[in-house]
Amino acid sequence: MTSYKVTYFDITALAEPIRFLLSYLNIDFEDFRFQREQWPALKPTMPFGKVPTLEIDGKVLNQSTAITRYLAKKAGLAGSDDWESLLIDIAVDNIHDLRQAIAGYAYDPNEASKEAKYAPLINETIPFYMDKFDKIVEENNGYFVNGKLTWADLFFVAVLDYLNFMAKIDTLEGRPNLKALKEKVLEVPQIKAWVAKRPTNNP
Fold first, then answer.
1. What confidence tens digit (pLDDT) does each residue in 56-103 have?
2. Which candidate in 1, 20, 76, 172 could, as Cys together with 158 as Cys, close a disulfide (CB 3.0–4.6 Å)?
3. Which residues sit opposite 88 in a β-bridge?
4. From which residue to which does the signal peptide run (predicted)?
């Protein structure tokens, strides 16, 4: 039997889409979480010194988006043709762009610089992306691509709590289509079961 192990910090963030897809596939996996003080010792053991990783039968893989896309293909959520797959990849990359913008604020070690970034982030960057996402979902009958569930939808909902945590706001406020999408994804039986049992101490 194939073994799977996800390694990441004790948070959702970039590992959660992997956990969502493994759960969607009904794959049992070891969810190995470590604390930040353990990272210096673990870092040299990781490919390219980064996490999350997915270990499959002893083979340690890095690059979370590539891993998630691989699992999505196994799940039949990666598009019915090359064009649909492209649209899904574009949606995921746009979500990544927003995540990186928020992380640029949240992880800025300079307090003065960080404070200066907050108003533009909240008043300009987040509305720019989230309003576009809401419109895209509205135009695609409740999903990011072609009116059906794809890994772009799972990816968005999987990272959403972490985006809200970093931004210190509810990014879905006033965006009914994204709210409805979140509710639909969280009602998928396998995702619902995972969310119910996952650790809840960190976003």
1. 999 999 999 999 999 999 999 999 999 999 999 999 999 999 999 999
2. 20
3. none
4. none
